[in-house]
Protein backbone atom coordinates (compact mmCIF):
# COMPACT_ATOMS: atom_id res chain seq x y z
CA UNK A 1 0.00 0.00 0.00
CA UNK A 2 1.26 3.44 -0.92
CA UNK A 3 -0.21 6.61 0.61
CA UNK A 4 0.86 10.08 -0.50
CA UNK A 5 -0.24 13.48 0.80
CA UNK A 6 0.24 16.69 -1.18
CA UNK A 7 -0.87 20.28 -0.74
CA UNK A 8 -2.22 22.49 -3.51
CA UNK A 9 -3.70 25.90 -4.12
CA UNK A 10 -6.15 26.41 -6.91
CA UNK A 11 -9.56 27.11 -8.25
CA UNK A 12 -12.21 24.43 -8.53
CA UNK A 13 -14.68 25.29 -11.28
CA UNK A 14 -16.91 22.26 -10.75
CA UNK A 15 -16.64 19.80 -7.87
CA UNK A 16 -18.41 17.08 -9.86
CA UNK A 17 -16.19 17.83 -12.85
CA UNK A 18 -12.90 17.37 -11.00
CA UNK A 19 -14.22 14.28 -9.18
CA UNK A 20 -15.34 12.79 -12.49
CA UNK A 21 -11.87 13.33 -13.97
CA UNK A 22 -10.22 11.75 -10.93
CA UNK A 23 -12.40 8.63 -11.15
CA UNK A 24 -10.64 7.78 -14.41
CA UNK A 25 -7.41 7.00 -12.54
CA UNK A 26 -6.49 3.79 -10.76
CA UNK A 27 -6.38 4.00 -6.98
CA UNK A 28 -8.13 6.36 -4.59
CA UNK A 29 -7.78 10.13 -4.75
CA UNK A 30 -9.46 12.16 -2.02
CA UNK A 31 -9.36 15.95 -2.20
CA UNK A 32 -10.05 17.75 1.06
CA UNK A 33 -10.20 21.29 2.35
CA UNK A 34 -6.62 21.62 3.63
CA UNK A 35 -7.72 24.10 6.32
CA UNK A 36 -9.65 21.28 8.01
CA UNK A 37 -6.62 18.96 8.14
CA UNK A 38 -4.16 19.31 11.03
CA UNK A 39 -1.07 18.55 8.97
CA UNK A 40 0.49 15.77 6.91
CA UNK A 41 0.60 13.31 9.82
CA UNK A 42 -3.11 13.81 10.52
CA UNK A 43 -3.91 13.11 6.85
CA UNK A 44 -1.67 10.02 6.73
CA UNK A 45 -3.07 8.72 10.02
CA UNK A 46 -6.65 9.04 8.75
CA UNK A 47 -5.84 7.43 5.40
CA UNK A 48 -4.07 4.51 7.05
CA UNK A 49 -7.00 3.93 9.40
CA UNK A 50 -9.39 4.01 6.43
CA UNK A 51 -7.40 1.39 4.52
CA UNK A 52 -7.14 -0.80 7.62
CA UNK A 53 -10.88 -0.50 8.25
CA UNK A 54 -11.50 -2.02 4.80
CA UNK A 55 -8.97 -4.77 5.51
CA UNK A 56 -10.77 -5.63 8.77
CA UNK A 57 -14.24 -5.25 7.28
CA UNK A 58 -15.29 -2.55 9.74
CA UNK A 59 -15.41 0.33 7.28
CA UNK A 60 -18.23 2.85 7.69
CA UNK A 61 -18.53 3.74 3.99
CA UNK A 62 -18.34 1.52 0.93
CA UNK A 63 -16.11 4.14 -0.77
CA UNK A 64 -12.43 4.35 0.21
CA UNK A 65 -12.24 8.11 -0.39
CA UNK A 66 -15.26 8.78 1.83
CA UNK A 67 -13.78 6.46 4.45
CA UNK A 68 -10.58 8.55 4.38
CA UNK A 69 -12.69 11.67 4.93
CA UNK A 70 -14.58 10.07 7.84
CA UNK A 71 -11.40 8.88 9.51
CA UNK A 72 -9.67 12.25 9.21
CA UNK A 73 -12.78 13.97 10.59
CA UNK A 74 -12.92 11.39 13.38
CA UNK A 75 -16.64 10.80 12.94
CA UNK A 76 -19.14 8.36 11.49
CA UNK A 77 -21.57 10.85 9.91
CA UNK A 78 -20.73 11.19 6.21
CA UNK A 79 -22.66 14.42 5.62
CA UNK A 80 -20.98 16.17 8.56
CA UNK A 81 -17.49 14.94 7.57
CA UNK A 82 -18.01 16.20 4.02
CA UNK A 83 -19.32 19.49 5.36
CA UNK A 84 -16.09 19.94 7.36
CA UNK A 85 -13.57 18.53 4.90
CA UNK A 86 -15.19 18.57 1.48
CA UNK A 87 -13.96 20.60 -1.46
CA UNK A 88 -16.10 23.36 -2.93
CA UNK A 89 -16.15 25.53 -6.01
CA UNK A 90 -13.87 28.55 -6.00
CA UNK A 91 -10.38 29.25 -4.69
CA UNK A 92 -9.20 26.61 -2.23
CA UNK A 93 -6.31 25.20 -0.30
CA UNK A 94 -6.43 21.49 -1.08
CA UNK A 95 -5.06 18.44 0.69
CA UNK A 96 -4.79 15.60 -1.83
CA UNK A 97 -4.55 12.07 -0.44
CA UNK A 98 -3.54 9.39 -2.93
CA UNK A 99 -3.87 5.72 -2.03
CA UNK A 100 -2.23 3.21 -4.37
CA UNK A 101 -2.10 5.67 -7.28
CA UNK A 102 0.28 5.84 -10.21
CA UNK A 103 2.34 8.94 -10.99
CA UNK A 104 -0.17 10.02 -13.64
CA UNK A 105 -2.53 11.17 -10.87
CA UNK A 106 0.13 13.43 -9.38
CA UNK A 107 0.88 14.80 -12.86
CA UNK A 108 -2.81 15.49 -13.42
CA UNK A 109 -3.13 17.34 -10.10
CA UNK A 110 0.07 19.29 -10.80
CA UNK A 111 -1.40 20.40 -14.14
CA UNK A 112 -4.67 21.57 -12.54
CA UNK A 113 -3.42 23.18 -9.32
CA UNK A 114 -0.32 24.87 -7.92
CA UNK A 115 1.64 22.54 -5.65
CA UNK A 116 2.12 24.14 -2.23
CA UNK A 117 2.68 21.88 0.76
CA UNK A 118 2.53 24.93 3.05
CA UNK A 119 -1.27 24.62 2.93
CA UNK A 120 -0.82 21.51 5.10
CA UNK A 121 0.49 23.60 8.01
CA UNK A 122 -2.36 23.67 10.54
CA UNK A 123 -4.16 26.78 11.78
CA UNK A 124 -4.77 25.53 15.31
CA UNK A 125 -7.29 28.22 16.28
CA UNK A 126 -9.38 27.47 13.18
CA UNK A 127 -9.21 23.71 13.82
CA UNK A 128 -10.10 24.10 17.50
CA UNK A 129 -13.22 26.00 16.50
CA UNK A 130 -14.10 23.81 13.49
CA UNK A 131 -13.98 20.54 15.45
CA UNK A 132 -15.17 21.93 18.79
CA UNK A 133 -12.00 20.81 20.55
CA UNK A 134 -11.91 21.39 24.27
CA UNK A 135 -9.49 20.96 27.11
CA UNK A 136 -7.75 17.95 25.57
CA UNK A 137 -5.78 20.24 23.25
CA UNK A 138 -4.03 21.80 26.24
CA UNK A 139 -2.55 18.40 27.03
CA UNK A 140 -1.96 16.76 23.66
CA UNK A 141 -2.26 19.54 21.07
CA UNK A 142 -4.67 19.94 18.18
CA UNK A 143 -3.10 17.43 15.78
CA UNK A 144 -2.87 14.68 18.40
CA UNK A 145 -6.41 15.38 19.64
CA UNK A 146 -7.76 14.92 16.11
CA UNK A 147 -5.64 11.82 15.51
CA UNK A 148 -6.99 10.39 18.79
CA UNK A 149 -10.54 10.89 17.50
CA UNK A 150 -9.59 8.89 14.40
CA UNK A 151 -8.16 6.10 16.52
CA UNK A 152 -11.26 6.06 18.75
CA UNK A 153 -13.48 5.23 15.76
CA UNK A 154 -11.88 1.74 15.90
CA UNK A 155 -13.03 1.28 19.47
CA UNK A 156 -16.57 2.62 19.22
UniProtKB/TrEMBL annotation:
Protein name, per record: KEOPS complex subunit Cgi121
Species this chain originates from: Methanothermobacter wolfeii (Methanobacterium wolfei)
Protein family (similarity comment): Belongs to the CGI121/TPRKB family.
InterPro entries in the cross-refs: CGI121/TPRKB, CGI121/TPRKB_sf
Superkingdom of the organism of origin: Archaea
Organism placement in taxonomy: Archaea, Methanobacteriati, Methanobacteriota, Methanomada group, Methanobacteria
Amino acid sequence: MKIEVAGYRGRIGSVEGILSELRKFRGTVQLLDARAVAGRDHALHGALHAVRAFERGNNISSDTGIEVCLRIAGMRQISRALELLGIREGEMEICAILVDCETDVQEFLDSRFQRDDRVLEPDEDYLRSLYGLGEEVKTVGVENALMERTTMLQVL
